Amino acid sequence: MSEIAPADRCLTLVIAAFNEAEALPRMQPRVRAALDMAEAEGLEARVLYIDDGSRDGTWELLRRFAQEDARVALLRLSRNFGKEAALTAGLDRVERGAALILDADGQDPPELLPKFVAKWREGYDDVFGTRVAREGEGVFKRASAHAFYRVIGALSKTPVPRDTGDFRLLSPRALAALRQLRERHRFMKGLFGWIGFNAVSIPYQRDARAAGRSKFNAWKLWNFALEGITGFSTVPLRMATYAGLATSLLAFGYGGWVIAKALLWGDRVAGWPSMMAVILFLGGVQLMALGMIGEYLGRLYEESKQRPLYLIDDWRPAIGVSSARRP
Ligand code: UDP
Ligand code: MG
Questions:
Q1: Which residues span the membrane (predicted)?
Q2: Ligand 1 atom showing the smallest separation from residue 16 Cα
Q3: Chain centre to alpha carbon of residue 244
Q4: Is there a single domain that holds both residue 140 and residue 247?
Q5: Residue-wise pLDDT tens digits, 23-53
């Protein structure tokens, strides 16, 4: 192979890992096999692991992987920045060629690499995996995901393909386009849709996690649905939303009671029940609206701070092509 392969001959697997010490030993052999498959197709293949501030020995494990295989590149963030930032950090470091994004827990099968590459070769810029089955996910996660895709589909102007995660291959130009989007609240599914180009979906069976636990609980998923992890300073603003919601609900109940009482026994102070009901209801609605404005204001505030999306603790590029692979 020549010293520098052209961009259409390079592929980097980008894998964000946060406390994945249990799953990674099972993932790495599959990743290496995928890299071999890519090389068999004449590609210069690499894998880039991003340690998103793990505290469970993930980094030590990854360093071992890099020692065993010269195609492994490592990036460590200074703390846990979340999956979206970790992926951004990884994609920022893919210098040449396409990138294939995978989960570290084995839920996105690396064995599908040839299918993704084939579509890329056909000229697609954004080849994304669509889940036809979700193994090992509870009723709640399935139901909430279902509802989420419907709501976002109705609200969002840019298309967000259904049942699609971050499992996707991005062509060099799609990658370059994505790199230009530097917003802090990174809702990746939306960003991928925003850049456009020719997209194509590959249906796949989403297996259960190889080991360890999902890092996304119900509340995390809810926040994710509210466009990425919200900053600490927007929380008080959000509370107004819930206070308003609770007040409105209480006002409805109380208003109903006041009106029923007036109808049954008459009201001694004329107009008082209806007045109370209206005041309480309006108060609730106003707080709710304020909260919603707060959501947007909070995000604006976060953007205006212009903080970097992530900070890097350690960066170890891959040293060599497969011929330089250590035993
Ligand atoms: N992840 C990450 N940073 C985080 C949370 C998760 O890099 O703060 C990684 C995680 O290691 C995994 C991927 O994102 O590779 C998906 O996470 P997980 O499997 O917990 O999500 P789920 O599949 O349950 O949606
Ligand atoms: Mg997972």
A1: 239-260, 272-297
A2: 7
A3: 29
A4: no
A5: 899 999 999 999 999 988 888 899 999 999 9
